[in-house]
Amino acid sequence: MTSFSKKKTKLFSLAKLVFLIPITIIILLLIFLWSSSSTIFSGNIIHLCFQSRKLNDLYCISAGTHPNLEAPSSFSSNVTTKFVDDLQQKSTRLGIPIPPGYHAFRNGMVKSDEELLVAYNDVEDQLEMHRSWTSTSQNHNATLCDGRGIYVYELPTKFNKDLVSQCADMVPWVDLCDYFSNDAMGEAVQKLGKGWYQTHQYSLELIFHSRVMNHPCRVLNISEAELFYVPFYAGLDVLRWHFKNVTNDVKDSLGLELVKWLESQPTWFKRSGKDHIFVLGKISWDFRRYSNSNWGSRFLELDEMQNPVKLLIERQPWHLNDIGIPHPTFFHPQSDNDITKWQLKLLNESRKSLISFAGAARPDAPESIRSMLINQCTSTSECKFMNCSSGSCDQPESVIELFIESEFCLQPPGDSPTRKSVFDSLISGCIPVIFDPFTAYYQYPWHLPQDYKKYSVFIDQEDVRNMKVNVVDRLMKIPEGEKQNMRRYIIYELLPGLVYGDPKSKLEKFQDAFSITMNNLFERLTRLEL
Q: What PANTHER family is this protein classified in (predicted)?
């Protein structure tokens, strides 16, 4: 063989090897993607979805015969072919309807009805897990502890008490100091009777702290504890910077200091933080600041904060360890008798109005349906509107009296999906009308039942926005018997578990929101150990 032929043969072999390398890489990549993927068959579309381990998001590559098919946005979910039947029915497993087309979703994302369904069902899977942690115990005494205790960390005061001391200038237009008096229940509201207070919507951290300190399962010896409560008032920390011109580093600093302090505690590493409890009195998004935003902190995005349980007034729907618990209401009963007397009052109350809405328009939020609801409400004598932009809603007696006199209370989303007003209406015996499942159905699995039709009416906000439904007409068609059944369920079954009792309360017959939460936290720990 000539020298030229040998060189030609070597070059051919080298070229063949170079050609095989990318093919091998492509095959290995496809194997990886397929092994970490799920396939959805939806009509004429096939979605191959794989998990991004770095971003913890699911991405889908779609192919099909639909013209102008757009690739779906990312969404967090464990997608499987079990959703095929749901996609055909266009409703979630809980019965939340998914109207056809593309929709505005969280934070400006646009999703198709199929993507919405998968995302919603993922949330429902998480709620099912939360409900599996529900305790069946009705015991309020020390016997429920069964040798298990909860330890309350004695944090440096900069993490709680010092934050409360800034109450006077935390929010520019209101002095919060009076609201934080009386163990954060606020000043008494005599007009509504015993147990009623001017409670602020951001008081949960202080209220919960007061109750834990008096809980029968609280232990002073840290070695006897199974749960560890961290009384960091992260909501107040965020709130104090909302209206001040400070850097993001300043907003994040106290949370980082708290994590550093916890890492100095041997108990923090006992179960990798899974037995630690945080209570945050603002919505989850306030602690999950986006990279291009100046709003809020990054506290819940820290790696160290992924394992602990976070109890919030509004959870991030795709984080399993975010658990929603009720907003504080104005009612803080001291005894079973306080609750029973209020229940009887509600049952005997004459409901003068079919519908009421306490709220304000959102002119700067074009996607909001509030203006449309206000127009529908004010155009009929069947509906009473209380304009909160005029300050009318600042008085608890005004809001509660309106709800007591109403059969239905409209509860559209505001600055975020959830509303304190949902709980004000429920403890007033007023049936809430929900327009977004994230307002209540996807938030509070320990305090509201899975069957939302027992206590509420759902009208999809898309139907309101597209003028497919007149809310007043829809509610007028609901039979009297159906309304009575819902109201009695709310008053007898739900109401006691939606209020936070006075820290000095001695409830024996009823479990309040705090007791339900504590029992379920212990139950969750038991299930995790099985």
A: EXOSTOSIN HEPARAN SULFATE GLYCOSYLTRANSFERASE -RELATED, XYLOGLUCAN-SPECIFIC GALACTURONOSYLTRANSFERASE 1-LIKE
Q: pTM of the predicted model, to two decimals?
A: 0.82
DSSP letters for 350-417? ---EEEEEEE---TT-TT--HHHHHHHHHTSTTEEEEEGGGTGGGSHHHHHHHHHTEEEEEE---SSS
Looking at 143-267, list the stretches that DSSP marks H as alpha helix, in order from N- to C-terminal side. 161-164, 181-184, 204-213, 234-242, 248-262
Q: Retrieve residue 401's tokens.
A: 């009296």
Contact 115, 49 (CB under 8 A): no
**Could you tell me how far CA 445 lies from the centroid of its own chain?**
10
Q: How far, in Å, CA of 40 to CA of 79, rounded?
A: 8
CB atoms closer than 10 angstroms to residue 114: 22
Nearest to 203 by CA among 170, 158, 241, 227: 170
CA distance 46 to 84: 11
Three-state DSSP class for residue 232: coil
Distance CA(329)–CA(299), nearest Å, equals 26
What digits encode the pLDDT tens for the residues 344-365? 999 999 999 999 999 999 888 8
The per-residue b/e assignment along 492-528, b for 16 or more CB within 10 angstroms, e otherwise, is eebbbbbbbbbbebebeebbbbbbbbbbbbbbbbeee
Compute the mean pLDDT over every residue in the chain, rounded to the nearest whole number.
84
262: which 2 tokens? 């916890």
Query: Which residue in this structure is represented by tokens 């212990």?
Result: 522
Calculate the CA dihedral of residues 264, 270, 272, 277 and round it to 10 degrees: -80
- How confident is the model at residue 101, as a pLDDT? 54
The distance in angstroms from the start CA to the end CA of the chain is 73
Tokens (6 digits) for 139:
């015991």
Write down how long the chain is.
530
Phi-psi region of 183 (alpha: psi -120 to 50; beta: other; left: phi over 0): left
529 CB-near residues (< 8 Å, 6+ apart) = none
Residue 159 corresponds to which tokens in the numbers above? 């993490």
